[in-house]
Amino acid sequence: MFNYPKDLYTDVRIEEVFETKIIYELGEIQELKTRNHKGAFIRIFDGDKWYYSATTDLKNLQQEIDELAAYGTNKDIDQSPVVTGFEVHKETLGKYEQESISEVPMEKKQELLTSYFPMLDNNEMITYWKALYSDKRLVKEFYSSKGSEISYDTQWAGFSLSMNFVAGEDRFQESFQKASDTFTDLLEEKENCEEMIAKCEDFVKHAKPVEPGKYTVVLSPAVAGVFAHESFGHKSESDFMIGDETMKKEWAIGKEVGAKLLSIVDDGGVIEGGYVPFDDEGTKGKRTEIIKEGVLAGRLHSATTAASLEESVTGNARAINFEYEPIVRMSNTYIDKGTKTKEELFSEIEEGIYIDTFNHGSGMSTFTIAPALAYKIREGKIAEPVNISVVTGNVMKTLALIDGVSDKVEFASFITGGCGKMEQFPLAVGFGGPYVRVKELEIQ
Amino acid sequence: MHREKYTISTRQISLNVVQTEIESIRRKNISKTGLRVYKEGLIGCAGAIGSYREEALLKRALKSLQGNVRYGFELSKNQQRSKDLRRKFIDKKNILEEFSEFLERVKKAQPNFIFANKINLTEEEYQVQNDAGLDLTHADRVLEVGLLFKEKSSVNVMDGFAGFWGRDYDRELGVEEINKICNAYQNPVDLPKKKKLPVIFRSGDMVPFLKFLKDLEGNSYGSKSSLFSNKREQKIFSEDFTLYQSRNSSDTLLTPFFDVEGTTNNHDRYTLINDGVLMAPFTDKRAAEKYQLPVTGAAAAEYDGIPVIGRPHLTIKGSTKTAKELLGGEPGVLVMIASGGDFTPQGNFGSPVQLAFLFDGEKIIGKLPELKISSNVMDMYGKDFIGVSKDSMGPLMHDKYLMMHMEVSEI
Description:
The complex is a heterodimer.
Chain A: E1 9-25, E2 28-45, E3 50-55, H1 61-69, H2 81-85, E4 90-93, H3 106-114, H4 117-121, E5 126-144, E6 149-167, E7 170-180, H5 190-206, E8 208-209, E9 213-219, H6 221-233, H7 245-250, E10 264-267, E11 287-292, E12 295-296, H8 303-308, E13 317-318, E14 327-328, E15 332-335, H9 342-347, E16 351-355, E17 358-363, E18 366-371, E19 374-378, E20 381-387, E21 391-394, H10 395-400, E22 402-405, E23 410-411, E24 419-421, E25 424-427, E26 430-433, E27 436-443
Parallel strand pairs in A: 4-6, 8-20, 9-16, 15-26
Antiparallel strand pairs in A: 1-2, 1-5, 2-3, 5-6, 6-7, 9-27, 10-11, 10-15, 11-12, 13-14, 16-19, 17-18, 18-21, 19-20, 21-27, 22-27, 23-26, 24-25
Chain B: E1 2-18, E2 21-39, E3 42-49, H1 54-63, E4 69-70, E5 79-84, H2 95-109, E6 113-130, E7 134-151, E8 160-166, H3 171-185, E9 196-202, H4 210-215, H5 218-222, E10 243-246, E11 269-274, E12 277-278, H6 285-291, E13 299-300, E14 308-309, E15 314-316, H7 323-327, E16 332-337, E17 342-343, E18 348-353, E19 355-359, E20 364-367, E21 371-376, H8 377-380, E22 385-392, E23 400-410
Parallel strand pairs in B: 5-7, 9-16
Antiparallel strand pairs in B: 1-2, 1-6, 2-3, 3-4, 6-7, 7-8, 9-23, 10-11, 10-15, 11-12, 13-14, 16-19, 17-18, 18-21, 19-20, 21-23, 22-23
Helix pairs in contact in B: 2-3
């Protein structure tokens, strides 16, 4: 396909994108578009440095490769541990060719949104709403000087109904979202939406500011997912360990890092927002146990980090689009199921907080979750709604304070947002978990 | 029918830093074009990344009129203005060598630390042109040195952030900027024992503005969903507090002086709050018409999208005092990283502060323990508002010091 420069490693990633975006605001259409474009990202490695180029000039990729190669110093690249670590695949995977989101007529996508309008328009407490439908189909090709020739497709579609509720002087903003890899999965969500709206109506009418302090907290599956992602998921991205002896010792596989009932998994093979059949350096998506029964069991890798730590690639080298290089990112990250029922988890709490939905989260040594719908727990039952600005905890202390995990994993279903790392935002990821109880978290 | 073209061209050289050394170099040269057509009160739009055929783009834009997206607003017209802020303060060809040297200097000056992340030299050109006589162009070139640091003995993914960003570069001043932070980091100090303390943010930090970005948004305001709805022309904040929606190049980087609808303002700023009085929420043409509000020029869109209200850059009018004068002899809490906090619908604010320093207005004294800060938007910009310094945070820094009293305690 290409004339690869001698004694340098080269790979080329070509992305063909189809996207739809439809936005209605208070029933009036604001945006209706489809987008098709192609771009490519070229990487050259000389054993010391990487040289990258992002281009839309697909007719001149060979010229771009040759120009980039001039930066590199030719070395015996085949012996580089980074290059020996690359997987080589020759595979074409057209998983969605028969049910491509690009073949669903625009009218059907509009109808999906407009069918919710009466529900929104007829609600006096909803003073403002915006309906978004969005989909993306991606066909990626990957070629490398080691011999990889891969072509595969992925797609993700969904809708979001963002609503502002007002009751007197009280206000609340929340959205109902549903996302999936096929259009048909998006249908039949009205009951769930009605249920969410009823919850919001109750919340805006009755929520009171929380008394700040430390509480036992139960996280819903979606919130547990974002907690797993922010608290330990980012710590498992091993690019922060390259050449760092302190970190290698501190984060040795086998170290106890959390309560015994805690297991966290990252799995690119799950059909969720972070589905990765191959990552952006041609490695197949894999299931990686990050924490198993409270013990550090694995971490996420690109070929560079795997070589540095003398471990194997995990299929987690991902870029947000053709303009960026792949870096170590999560795919679908979740807390694995435990043994208690949801009811048992709540029944053992005299006074606590239940976080049902969230606005955003972040994670460093301290993680944060900014809740949306949140409630007091009193005598084992979900009680009155409360306004909370932020939930925080020290990551390592909190992982040890998990004292209950329910018996069923659910994935969160999002079409908006995504994960940000350094300059690359948003990346589609999946996250979820069971209901998770933490003995003590700081509530503000 | 009218035609309008919006283009964004980006040229960037990006160096990735790992273990205080350059690990990779990336070059990018991408242009994105959106062609909008306006006909019989409707708007159609089509876009292209890279090269394109004008006729094909027009055909697609015309076809998209079938989407029936209403746009009956007057086009921006009869204005020509060009602003080119690009200055050759660093030679692109030598950037790898220059920053290899820079990192060597940093490595020697700070042997206890490891540095990582990005050094970007970005050049952007924006243009909006239409057949009603509008022709606005804006070009900027900015260097961003954003280094995450960690102590070699630390078990954290990162301990902090040091860097500088703007339209200038000097190796020695850059190293000094990094030293200032890292030296203070190695000097742990106690939090002063007072419930309320002066809290100091970088003026470009959007965390203290989150409530304004949500509740001064025109649709939120106009639909009575905002905490500030119906408070227009009322004095609700400190008389020392004036808030601009700004596209002024002294307040912003890589931000054109016009929005995607071609709206411009005097001095490239629009006053949203004047001496504590709420003047207007920020709007695009659609929200302005719908809710009978002034057009402030806050429209944004993807290159191939239809304008909607975006997230404008907010800037507080600077005071005539230095940071030291504003603090009046009392040391304050300089917030370096406050990630994850937010406001409740009632305006209560809470956030952890992952990294903060004690600061006397001139010198960063030492590193404070992890903190939590809390307040309410009405107090932050009302009785507890101190002001924005006239001095910037450093010779290579664009930002100034924004100060207000808040409740501060250790986590």
